Every structure is written in C-alpha cells, then in structure tokens.
Amino acid sequence: MLSIIRVEAVDDACARGASELLLGAGLHGHKYAIDAAVAEMAVRQPPPVIVMTSDPQDMHTLCGDAVRIVSL
After folding, report:
1. pLDDT at position 6
2. Is the pLDDT of residue 1 over 80?
3. Cα–Cα distance list, 64 to 2, 22, 43 (Å)
4. What does the pLDDT average to over 14-34?
5. Position 4 in a domain
C-alpha cells in the first residue's frame, strides 16, 4: 500500500482549485478547507484514485464520481 501513496504539496494552484471546488459544491468556511485541498489533489490524479476518509459525504460532494471514496 505504501508504495502507491503519493505525497503532494499544497501550493497556490492547489488552493485556487480547492476554492473552485468549494464554490461549485456550495460549501464555504474553514470547516471544508482541508477536504477541498485533498479533493482538488485527488481529482487531478490519473485514475484510478481512491480517497480514504472519515467524512465520505463531503468528499463525494467535492470530488463527484471522479474519485472512489472509501469510508473509514
């Protein structure tokens, strides 16, 4: 599992993309900021992409069907 994990830096482009995802999903505020950054990185990765999260509903709202969401 560890061999397929990808570490990404949060940069200005990621922050802008995360902001666009939030706006598109109708979400706002710091409560969703980290989820939005993770979602932005996930949707721009080549498929297949799996996001493991304790908050599957918000992640599905942000990622749509582009990413497989697995609840922890």
Report:
1. 76
2. no
3. 25, 12, 9
4. 93
5. no
Prediction pTM value: 0.86
Q: Do 1 and 20 meet the contact criterion of CB atoms below 8 Å apart?
A: no
Q: How many structural domains is the chain composed of?
A: 1
What single string gives the DSSP state of each residue in 2-69?
GGG-------HHHHHHHHHHHHHHT--SGGGHHHHHHHHHHHTSPSP-EEEES-HHHHHHHHGGGSEE
Count the residues in the chain. 72
Residue type, 9: A
Mean pLDDT score of the chain: 92
Q: Which domain holds residue 55?
A: 11-71
